[in-house]
Amino acid sequence: MPLSKIAGIGMYVPEKVVTNNDLKKWMDTEDSWIQERTGILERRLAHRTEETTTTMAVEAAKIAIERAGITAQDIDFIVFATLSPDYYFPGCGVLVQRALKMKEVGALDVRNQCSGFLYAISVADQFIKSGMYKNILVIGAEKHSMGMDYSTRGRNVSVIFGDGAGAVVLQPTEKENQGILSTHLHSDGGSAEILAQYNPGSHANHWMETPVADFDDAEVGEMFMSHAMIDKAQLFPFMDGPTVFKKAIVKFPEVIVEALTKNGYTTEDLNLLIPHQANLRISQFVQQKLKLRDDQVFNNIMSYGNTTAASVPIALCEAWQNGKIKEGDLVCLAAFGSGFTWASALLKW
Ligand code: ACO
Fold first, then answer.
1. Out of 92, 114, 317, 332, which one is annotated catalytic?
2. Which residues line ligand 1 (CB under 6 A)?
């Protein structure tokens, strides 16, 4: 059974740089507060009207496809991970298929937030290993700026996130000892409401002791989105930051060690860990817990903020472009996020 390898990788981030000080135009915040708690110095925000999650994904995909030495016509399946799609439905996968004038290939959208790209890679990996497809385009992309509360009310969430896209082309490898060795996927829905955007949705306050939407006198057909939700700022994401932090620092190391152990490796064998760029403090905690050297962990949240499903492919692409990954290196990708879901992939580059 052939393993799958990353044959091409690309990234795209918007031109517009927004520093922590720039955010002060919109909210009461401090550069020092953001840096101390998250490590973020600046993030990129997409053009309001000219850039969407899909347009950014398409730019990243073009680079990945070219680097794989193929054309968009050769792609035989698309897996697209995002929590900020262009439309509530259909998903972004079909928009990429259209934009890149691909054949009428399958397009699957993945909704696993911060671990979305790893879930997407895992799905693609199974299709390659089974022999069903030969060139799969896997994308993680986000336009968070479309739906964040950039006022003081939403500052505990909005300062953390940024926009961007990353993409890879997976192909079967012909080489021995190369490719994705294993992927590991987990979830714990017990904490689904800890990091979530509740509205618009069909929940009707069913899962919450304290209602998270005000339906006023709305009829059932009007409960998806209402004026009351807009007036009461109930259309923004919610995050219980301390709870996310506590769970992340346990599950990140667990799923990294799971991947290493499964393949007979230890942390000393690891050439590079690419963690989801949730928060620099979380990455540093994981590094400390696993006793990894600085050169074994790649972080770029300082420049881009947390780009959710895009963060792993953007970090992987930048690490590779900066010469930090060489052929034969043992690389671990790991993520934790909303759901909660967490995941890892171990690969020989
Ligand atoms: N600027 C200035 N002050 C702020 C800001 C801001 N941007 N945001 C919140 N504050 C204030 C709060 O209002 C509060 O003030 P008060 O004490 O007067 O009430 C104070 O700072 C502390 O607020 P907390 O929310 O308790 O801040 P905390 O120290 O927990 O830090 C943070 C928040 C950074 C989110 C932290 O909880 C954390 O790192 N959590 C991990 C979650 C995370 O990283 N999520 C990333 C996305 S999820 C993922 O990718 C897995």
1. 114
2. 29-30, 33-34, 37-38, 114, 155-156, 159-160, 195, 241-242, 244-245, 248, 278-279, 281-282, 306, 336-337
